[in-house]
Amino acid sequence: MKKRKALIIGGGIAGPALALFLKRADIDAVVYETKPSPSRYAGLFLNVAPNGLDVLRTLGIDQPLTEKGFPFARMVMISGRGKRLGEVYNGSRGRHGIIIKRWLLQEAILEEAVRQGIRVEYGKKLEDIEFPAGGGVLARFADGTEAEGDFLAGCDGIHSRTRRIVFPEAPAPAYTGLLSCGGFAYNPSLSPTPGVQRMIFGKKAFFGYLVKPSGEIYWFSNLPHPEATTRGALGGLSNDARREMLLEWHAEDPEPVREIIRSTEGDIGMYPIYDVPFQPAWHRGPVVLIGDAAHATSPHAGQGASLALEDAIVLARCLRDLPDPAEALAAFERLRRPRAEKVVRYSRSIGNNKAVSNRILLWLRDATMPFFLKLFASPNAHDWLYSYRVDWEERVRA
């Protein structure tokens, strides 16, 4: 039989991971990336939770990433007055996640894909998608080239071009009312935070940080910003302007918040936080959306990368075990939709607690937070989130 061929739009995390699993399923795949060449700058840092690490372990690339990342088992919550509110585990059943620079994760997956002979083409901006009369799918790119395959996976992020083409009626991503800022600093005077990320519910904004033994600091801030904006619009702010803006927002918060912001010499990232709480359909004909293209989640639960990795292994299993593409894509959506949408809602609820600015509500939040944190004090309190496992050997039934 002729081997099936997949067209994968997007060379971030989900795309190359899907290509690797499809290769295991004896399905050829080509990854098409808009960027003109591989780039080491791909955002700041992210959390790969235990459920995401489990997928990387199936691919055999978890160990080097774990060594390059910052393992952390707990998040310590602190009020804007510097009072310890409680802590939450970043994992369950003795397993925890890592924080890693985004480009390191993307590079590792992409390099493994190339090592295994998977073709990755750059400078391929998707222009249109057509459905030939004989079946399959045809992708047209802005450079005038085209590609044919048996099916196409849109792994092209929250502002997915694939989604806009195939699902023009789909709702736009929803703005959450927060900006995310962050960067890397170096300050050897601050004590390392082994295994811990500190989270500060500030008077006006939320701040999180960790300090590596080397003195390098990973930090982020979430600022309330009621008016929807774009990453491009924020690009007009200089680095100095962003620093001053953050210092003003965190003027009433305990140290080392302002000290960390001041010691950031590199770029300070800033972007609006959107999510996709509900996408009416994830597949149409031989086209399917996965990762952020289908169910983008805000970063507050640290699950974006892990959900994308879960999607990759589940979709590949469905295509492996159900030869009819329509049946396979329907099974994928059935298996993944409930969990993905639950995580998106959960993450949005966490973000809503960060956007509190009214003084009375701030007092109420800080007064009740210790009680609610005690409810989640058990290492297994988030089993539903972190203990999700996908067995590659298990067969999928229609």
From TrEMBL:
GO terms for molecular function: FAD binding; monooxygenase activity. Keywords: Monooxygenase, Oxidoreductase. It comes from the Bacteria. Residues 5-164, 281-346 form the FAD-binding domain. PANTHER family: MONOOXYGENASE, PUTATIVE (AFU_ORTHOLOGUE AFUA_6G14510)-RELATED. This is 2-polyprenyl-6-methoxyphenol hydroxylase. It comes from Planifilum fulgidum. The lineage of its organism: Bacteria, Bacillati, Bacillota, Bacilli, Bacillales.
